[in-house]
Amino acid sequence: MCTEVKHKINPNLFFALATICGVCSGYLQEPFIFSAAETISQLFINLLKLVSLPIIFLSIVSTASGMENMQQIKLLGKKVVKYTLLTTIIAASIALALFLAIDPVRGQIVADQTVALNGTQPSYLSFFIQIVPSNIIQPFSENNVIGVLFLAMLLSFAIVTLPVQHRTVLHSFFSSIYAAIITITRWIVAVMPIAIWAFITLFMRDLSQGLDVKSLALYLTVVLAANVIQAGVVLPTLLKIKGISPIRMARGMFPALSVAFFTKSSAAALPMAMRCAEENVGISRKVASFTLPLCTTINMNACAAFILTTVLFVSMSQGVTYSLAEMGLWVILATIAAIGNAGVPMGCYFLASAFLAAMNVPLNILGVILPFYTLIDMLESAINVWSDSCVAAVVNKEVQQEDSSLLESNTNLHLGAMNSVS
Q1: What is the pTM of this model?
Q2: Can you list the domains of the chain with their CATH numbers?
């Protein structure tokens, strides 16, 4: 009885209650409360750092090791990867363009921590040197996200070339560890209301001391606007170019989009997405069963936009500066990170925190963003599923056209042979 009631409680109610309690406790101006909030917030930040790098590494390796037959997936795989990279890079580029245009970093949100970064920012060349670690443990011990990405991709390519029996063993090994890390992540999410209380309490303290919230509002505007443009302009345009009706697609995929929105997980919406794609949109079972699961893992348009915007916003608010070329590099990094996203609630949040932790940027502003991330995560999950379905529809259209061309070619060849005989 108690278990049933517990499952029916909406976690958003706890988030709202934690926010209200944080506002109230922040106004009390009690030093003891602030000390407790600082301790809890630091513990939560440590938990974020604990799981961030393993999520990035294991999500990429477990996905690659699960590819059983490269010959069978080569045709579809090339198409999926092509449109995944295209749409994800566009999403990150739109986010960067909006970030530069709106310029949310017009004031320092946590001005007293800016000094901590002065003189410690690595040079541009040293950033590239860090891509290749000197040993396997180094990128994890030094919070080197770029090194972890390089190691994960290098190991993934190596696993794909192994015999099937070896690849199966490695896939089971990495997938099991990945599942364990995701379980730990769910535990962290379960205690998130306590962390929200702590961050909101500290936020109210800073607000009473003259904290500027305008930058936070502009940051949220960039994130939401980038997602809306990607979902409402870019993806429908891609469908129109391929001769597919965006309205029909949206209607057909609406149940799956709803599931993704309310569960905040594109992975949780996968069964419904496959059903809608086959029954409502008319995507072939072969294409849907291959494309959608793959896209759920690697096609994260909204995640790329969030990672890029969040990393630039938080780090620049703490005094880090970037050249235009470095910002362009973050488009690529955000795309790679999004491809390795877990497809679970708060996956993008953990990835963004991993990048910032690797740069030695204080994560306090991430705590301020946290109360708003519930809505952002819901929107991003729905947009990711929408992007997955659009890629699947485009791939299905191209496969149908190629099959028709092949059939027509074979028919003409057969008729030509008959005419020559007669």
Answers
A1: 0.66
A2: 11-420 (1.10.3860)
